[in-house]
Specification:
Layout (H helix, E strand, L loop, with lengths): L1 E5 L7 H16 L5 E5 L7 H10 L4 E4 L24 H10 L1 H13 L3 E15 L13 E4 L3 H8 L4 E4 L5 H6 L5 E5 H6 L8 E4 L4 E8 L1 H5 L3 H35 L6 E4 L2 H22 L2 H17 L1
Parallel strand pairs: 1-2, 1-3, 5-6, 5-7, 8-10
Antiparallel strand pairs: 3-9, 4-7, 4-8, 4-9
The chain binds ligand 6CS.
Length: about 325
């Protein structure tokens, strides 16, 4: 078997390292029968192109961020909703691992679009960076925020008064540098590794959302495999859950220090208080109603409500 696994990140970053480990494990388990070529971001186009390649079966496996499927799978936009998950990342990963709303019902919606999610996992809490301090919703007034493609992410930043622009992360460094956009959101490891901190004066530890990635496979390819091979894939997906979690936890911790300690590119790092986060939470919550009333139908409403009760129960 010779398969292709495409990721949205580069060597040393979480998705790529996850995919490499996933490929190595399957190679070993199959005594060398399974060979997976892992692609860094950029080699096969932008993030949306990659989703399309998975859907058409040109690539067998992909790590996909739901932020790039927003124009295809409406229900997947629920991950744009800020302050939905908890502040405990281990608990969040547990919810992603076990949620019926996500692993059964949302996964079905993706499958209808030829994307089969095998796992939902986190790359860490998201933070804001900007060319100015972002501490209150007023600071977002007219702020040109780079987002992923999901219209609900755009909507979420409009709720703060910002002026959001979706673009690929491949263009983000240059766009920040030239002032095409003023700021962006990402987990800490990615901000450091993609060097966004070099062209941003401020970083806000806001933890306004968790970054979710999906390990996905083309459904026709997957369903057509012999059962023993499918079992090997499923087993590897399970094994990778704690591995992926550890990977992001370690990188997010290590690279925060290197942002703070950077002598060549000083970035002022502030952490929001609970009261400051509450001001954003108050503006973010109505976006849930918008999602339910304007974006999805009854199924989408059910998925969000089920996820919300799973989150509550987990706490
Ligand atoms: O900001 C982005 O679009 C990118 N961020 C991460 C953490 N992974 C890939 C994604 O394309």
């Amino acid at each position: 078997y010779n398969w292709t696994f495409v990721t949205e990140e580069m060597e040393g970053q979480v998705q790529y390292e996850y995919a490499r480990e996933f490929a190595d494990r399957l190679h070993e388990k199959s005594d060398g029968d399974i060979n997976i070529e892992v692609f860094e971001f950029g080699g096969l186009g932008d993030e949306v192109n990659q989703v399309e390649q998975l859907q058409s079966g040109i690539v067998e496996f992909a790590i996909v961020s739901p932020g790039f499927t927003g124009t295809m799978v409406d229900e997947g936009q629920l991950f744009a909703l800020q302050f939905l998950f908890t502040d405990d990342m281990e608990l969040n990963q547990h919810i992603l691992d076990t949620s019926e709303a996500l692993n059964v019902h949302l996964a079905n919606k993706y499958e209808q679009h030829n994307i089969k999610p095998l796992a939902f996992w986190t790359e860490g809490a998201m933070q804001w960076t900007g060319n100015r301090e972002l501490r209150t919703p007023e600071d977002f007034n007219g702020f040109k925020m780079r987002t992923q493609e999901s219209p609900l992410i755009v909507r979420s930043y409009q709720a703060y008064g910002a002026d959001p622009t979706p673009m690929s992360w491949g263009e983000l460094y240059t766009s920040l540098d030239r002032g095409v956009v003023d700021g962006q959101e990402n987990p800490i490891f990615f901000i450091e590794d993609a060097s966004f901190h070099e062209v941003q004066s401020h970083m806000t530890i806001s933890r306004h959302n968790i970054y979710v990635a999906m390990t996905t496979v083309n459904p026709d390819f997957y369903n057509g495999l012999p059962e023993d091979i499918r079992n090997m894939i499923d087993e590897t997906v399970e094994e990778m859950r704690p591995v992926g979690f550890e990977l992001q936890a370690q990188l997010n911790e290590e690279l925060l220090d290197s942002i703070i300690d950077s002598e060549t590119h000083p970035t002022e790092v502030i952490e929001l208080t609970e009261a400051e986060r509450d001001a954003f939470r108050a503006l973010a919550e109505p976006v849930r109603e918008y999602f339910v009333n304007e974006v999805v139908d009854e199924d989408g409403k059910m998925i969000l409500e089920m996820l919300q009760s799973e989150i509550e129960a987990a706490q």
